[in-house]
Amino acid sequence: MDARSATEAERQDAGAGVIATRGLTKRYRGGQLAVDGLDLTVPAGSVFGFLGPNGSGKTTTIRMLMGLIAPTSGTARVLGSAMPGAARTVLPHIGALIEGPALYGHLSGRDNLLRYDAADPTADPRTRRARAGSALERVGLTAAAGKKAKAYSLGMKQRLGLACALLQPRRLLVLDEPTNGLDPQGMREIRSLVRELASDGTTVFLSSHLLDEIEQVCTHAAVMARGRLIVQGAVADLAAGARGRLTVTTPDTGEAARVLKEQGAGDVVAADDQVTADPPERDLAEVNAALVAAGVRVRGFGVERASLEDAFVALTGEGFDVAG
Ligand SMILES: Nc1ncnc2c1ncn2[C@@H]1O[C@H](COP(=O)(O)OP(=O)(O)OP(=O)(O)O)[C@@H](O)[C@H]1O
Question: 58 CB under 6 A from ligand 1?
């Protein structure tokens, strides 16, 4: 693949997907089926969110994609080549941040990068400092480059890990839970950095157990539950596949709840001055009219835009509930 020109490589990615797995399965030695028949297609140029509760198989999948462990069965193609066989030629095109960056606490941010770069036999030593400088710039660490890494906040460490991944031009970035353990400010910083990195056309594959994170950052997503793929596609399409909640604002919540149930609404929940429900399969104007006819003082009536969470609940019949 080294012989291919960049445009040829991009054309190939666009056709087959930057990542494409077929029937990818991993059963650990203890018998645990961690990933079960996964068919995943990651389009070129997407920011692809790999979403699932803890233990759903995300890390195991990423480790197979990176050639760190072999699948029990099925195939994984990354940048057009079969893994784990092609790991040596494929991995140089991938920037990865998996399970937190391995940093030397006693070295400065810049020296960590220089050391990381020096471990890459293809990296020209004459341009090393310039590479480190521009990677620091991209992740916003120039001002803190001289500080020891052990004095960095978690968010700064994560950004330094990203800088390592960005030392060379990459066609694909793979980030495993990049905001895990960060405070809200740190999360915001990493999210906006990911958006920025993607804006030049680099495909970004990131895992998360946070639904709203995926909605905020990603163009595409795949949802995992218990090792299986529940759904994948463009985030806008996934959310559109589910109906949002009907919300009625009224002081007469008891009567409103009764009428909504009578009209066929599901999961009716009354609280303070609002009743929410899964909308019934009928013209909502009729539902509104029925409320008014029953004497309910309707002060607000509408269906909220469906979120990815609604889609997940609709698809699995479960809440997207994660412990930690
Ligand atoms: N090395 C291993 N040996 C045996 N079982 C494992 C191993 N690694 C993971 N598992 C099991 O495989 C399942 C999937 O784990 P995995 O780490 O891939 O999920 P995950 O979605 O990445 O979750 P998390 O966000 O908690 O890392 C879990 O039930 C886990 O306990």
Answer: yes
